[in-house]
Amino acid sequence: MQNEDYMVIFQPSGRRGSVPKGVSIVEAARLLGVGIETLCGGRTVCGKCIVRIEAGRFEKFGITTGLDHVSPWQEAEGKFINAEQKAAGFRLGCQARVFGDLLVYVPEASRACKQVISKAARDIKIDLNPAVRHYHLKLDPPVIEEPLGDFERVGRDLEKKYGLKDLTIDLFALRQLPRVLRQGDWQVTVSVWNQKEIICVRPGTVKRSYGFAIDVGTTTVAAYLCDLNSGHVVDTVSMMNPQCKYGEDVMSRITYHRNNPGGLQRMRDDIIAGLNQLIDRALAVTHPPKPAKTILDASAPVEADATGNSQEEYLCLQHDDIHDLAIVFNTVMHHIFLEIDPAALGRSPFPPAIHHSLNIKARDLGININPAAYVFVLPNEAGFVGADNVGVLLAEQPHKGDLNQLIIDIGTNGELVLGNRHKLISSSCATGPALEGAQLSCGMRAAPGAIERIAIDSETKEVDYKVIGRQAWRKFSGPEDMHVRGICGSGVLDLLAELFRTGIIDKGGAFNRKTLNGHPRLRKNPSTGMAEFVLAWSAESAIENDIVITQKDIRQMQLAKGALYAGCKLMIKRLGLKQVDLVKIAGAFGTHIDRVKALIAGLFPDCRIENIQSVGNAAGDGCRAALLNVAKREEADWYARNVEYIELTTEPNFQREFVAAMSLPHMYDDFPHLEGIVPADILRQ
Amino acid sequence: MQNEDYMVIFQPSGRRGSVPKGVSIVEAARLLGVGIETLCGGRTVCGKCIVRIEAGRFEKFGITTGLDHVSPWQEAEGKFINAEQKAAGFRLGCQARVFGDLLVYVPEASRACKQVISKAARDIKIDLNPAVRHYHLKLDPPVIEEPLGDFERVGRDLEKKYGLKDLTIDLFALRQLPRVLRQGDWQVTVSVWNQKEIICVRPGTVKRSYGFAIDVGTTTVAAYLCDLNSGHVVDTVSMMNPQCKYGEDVMSRITYHRNNPGGLQRMRDDIIAGLNQLIDRALAVTHPPKPAKTILDASAPVEADATGNSQEEYLCLQHDDIHDLAIVFNTVMHHIFLEIDPAALGRSPFPPAIHHSLNIKARDLGININPAAYVFVLPNEAGFVGADNVGVLLAEQPHKGDLNQLIIDIGTNGELVLGNRHKLISSSCATGPALEGAQLSCGMRAAPGAIERIAIDSETKEVDYKVIGRQAWRKFSGPEDMHVRGICGSGVLDLLAELFRTGIIDKGGAFNRKTLNGHPRLRKNPSTGMAEFVLAWSAESAIENDIVITQKDIRQMQLAKGALYAGCKLMIKRLGLKQVDLVKIAGAFGTHIDRVKALIAGLFPDCRIENIQSVGNAAGDGCRAALLNVAKREEADWYARNVEYIELTTEPNFQREFVAAMSLPHMYDDFPHLEGIVPADILRQ
């Protein structure tokens, strides 16, 4: 009964270390800090975590290893690894477990790369009405005739001068009070939260007060450091959600929690540590004397833009200067963040543990800002429509106008809101991660080497494309310059639209063999026998293979867009509308989307192209609104209570609508606004 | 620049270990867990910490040591150590610092012994109206048509069934909610604090709910475990305040904080750890199936008395079952407990950081009960009249009657309250620790070997006495059976009264040489030349010395009682009264006091003896009232606001009154109620 550890070495990174017997190779990689793609969280669905087990004696590392040092082959692995590959030592990293010393090679295609994150704050109008306000006092010092206590002395003047009554004081602020009063010679700045509680006292007259608005996405996290006196965004920082290693989508993370004791705690610790890193980074960055700026990515070179902020040139912020924090996420991320069991969110009827917004002391969450500060957690609408959607609504305010808006927030999950000031309904649809590039044979995250734009020539059917990390398109580059690794979200929608527009696939999504007769890009995969279309030849790629889109991939995309379209349509019907006045696409995905191609692909019902808007990271913008304006917090709870959630999958017509919506752009619906954009014969097949 | 450590060995305990260079021997003892008396906290006032530095090579321990291994002799040590003793290696442990390996002998007189603590709960009437109430719910489970969140589902039924509105929920309770609801098959017990916040959810129908009332004294700590459903005291546990090692009185602790970086934190950590030990002990003790009982001392054999509690015979309590806690202390202990700088309490005008009561999450304080529970900290009246005095008032309720009550709480500090329902005033007087036995040449804490009762024969002037730990008085014992070590608080007052009543000292407190001419017990101390009276001969003692009371000791007692008497008198005058209707003596000291002797000694102005009451640990009783009845919490804040604090030392007549009150029983005042008790010629000298 001894706890055995084995040496595992990962190549090409060379990272090595001991891991406990029996952990999976994916887990071992996690323990040793090696990035392996794991989109499905070990459910053998994505096949992204293929690794090669090396055999033999490696003098250089002092280990002997072999294929028998891992757990036996699982049948499920056969879905992704053929017999030849199997013989060469390929395994699924989530299935193969460590039972001896190992040398593991992680192929390029399986390596998790740093994703490009783009969640810049938009310039939206927010009335400034922060929860934490600051009051300057000049007190009479205590004398023997009137030895009133410090807190009561402060409270008396706050009432006399500012009309604040019955305040309480946080323990941490109380601890500062005697020192601060005397240090400031009885002149102090008192920070009061929601006109209820003193959370900070500082000597003298101080104005400095900052807050964070944080948007925790399934995949990415963005934090906006805001000046609570001006409302300005001082800095934007972002990172990958460190929980990605437990699975790419929310269901995988629920699964991880279910299958791993302590898994919830681990995921929660990871997101808290991640947020603290983000906060540290934002505070460190603002130390040097330079103006406010936006950082899109931590690894990118820091470029200062000249937004000014001249009043306080030398902005040296401490964690204690952060007096407020507002945070949004989907409901599963919300539960994990708060360490609430998310299991019920994974089973019908998917009730959340709580809808209401929450005010929680930062110290209770382990968030490293002023310990007496509160974290405002925005409310959830439903199990699959979370606080992030409330954020979108706070930013877009569909309840304030007469126009019927359809707001689509496409992340790993699709969230829909439709309505106007009379009524608002919401729903969610399981688009799956296909629209984000996952679960496609060549899909990947938005990282360098990912195809993000595609244009196909109507005549020659030749493919031109652009990859992340390179300005020049394919046709202006040599093949060896492209280093293509796969296709990411924004490229996927382009691809689907272009395949259809150029007639490569028909309305039903099938490859049009007649049109492409003998074209070298359309071929049968020699091992699977499935039809596939080559997007980039191996000479252009970094993974020694052609980058292809298979018939099955196209089906995946159709399923995703069909779910979204069907959802939109059922909601339009539910409100008794003929059409929507405005379509807003939110989410990082939305900022990169080509609205024409989105319409061609049939992501949503027909609409005037000029009425399709991309609203960027509206969830983050709404979160910022809640940070800066307490009235928005009440509005948030109003949304969570009053937006009616529609469960689409139980709608009687859902299945029929879904099937019809899988066609391009739709089986029956007309798309008058695509006239002249898509050839008439193709549009009306 | 290296950090040197030296080996220090204490005898006779044999405890040994490395300590950093430069620490005092008292500090070294603390680090190694050796108890040395340190009443004054290192201010060279008490002289209790005398130790002997051994010199030579000690093969047994492998060290060589010597008098030069400690820091040089300080002049102040000469107050307590004469030349001969100095030559023998005696030093004050608080002054001598470690500069080499040491063997230190701790004489019997300097050893800190476990004190006898007696703070049993009185049987007082308290209306049951706890802050935490429990509600049983039977909920409809969520269905697809109504997937309302867990918290909102609970909230809806709490409003419908019990009329509770706008409740919030603690994060820790929210974390339990999804699991508990499903575990209990949608039947739950919800615990709500102050009709505001859900702090606990449990599956099924549960009633169990307990709380602690805790009285933190400067010297002793008592905790009452109470059943919040019945109000019964389930258990009483007590301990020495672990902060005693930093000094016996509150001023010494402020000094310790001022002189030691991190000292406040250390004292706070000690009291929190101590309270957690107490809580653990109370919970552990109630595990076996036995009735409720009172434990006076942890080391004493546990005696169960038959108070019943038959409903729940097998009472197995967990920390999570503790839903509430109320706590009292003097203002300095209050500040240290909350980690608030107490320095301002040590300087005129002595303002506290806060008067108001506080509700603080147990987890914020590190108190190991249900983490979502609140600790109710009772309010302070003034810098020297703390929450413990508010507790006394809650128990005695002087504001509810017409009788003018004088309530004297004698601890290390004396606190006085006087008045009735028309007006209440309070004050504090620096009695010093003399009445508790400290600062007397043979004074000690109430530990085994301490004289607690004294009777002197009027004719022979022979002394009879009783010591703690032995039932039989001196006259029924052999001298070698007594093992006297000193005199403690209750003995001190007896002594002063008896010395006066028998004419050994005169009204002014001076030894009456005429009366005692040639009596062997009255003598001159050979080294100091000061007159002293022998209470017990060395044959009866455990410290190889006669136990004596010196002229200076008597002066100390007179100063203490004079301060108290003057305080009472000035307060009586302030309220325009002729006399008080009722004298109540509170505090552990009060429970042991002989009220006749207290009157003879002139602790307070004349009063009918039957109107002098001992009210035991009224502070703890009041704290218990606040635990069990929320209305008492409001009453507590009312007291803190409305009892007028009088600073006695600035009263114009204080000095004159003080001097007059040092006489026995008073210089001018008549004591008609002592007629027939004290011989007329003595009473009216």
Q: Can you describe what's shown?
A:
The structure is a homodimer of 685-residue chains. The first copy, chain A, is an alpha/beta fold. Chain A has five domains: 5-110, Beta-grasp domain (Ubiquitin-like (UB roll)); 132-203, Ubiquitin-like (UB roll) (Roll); 214-377, Nucleotidyltransferase, domain 5 (2-Layer Sandwich); 400-433 and 557-683, Nucleotidyltransferase, domain 5 (2-Layer Sandwich); 440-497 and 504-547, no CATH class. In chain A, the strands form seven sheets. A seven-stranded mixed beta sheet of chain A has the order 15-14-13-12-16-18-17, sandwiched between helices. The longest helix of chain A is centred in the last third of the chain and has 24 residues, at 551-574. Chain A is globular, with a radius of gyration of 28 Å. Mean pLDDT of chain A is 88; it is low at 287-313. The interface between A and B is large, with 45 and 45 residues.
Quickly list its features.
homodimer, 685 residues, alpha/beta, Ubiquitin-like (UB roll), Nucleotidyltransferase, domain 5, 5 domains, 7-stranded mixed β-sheet, 6-stranded mixed β-sheet, 17 helices
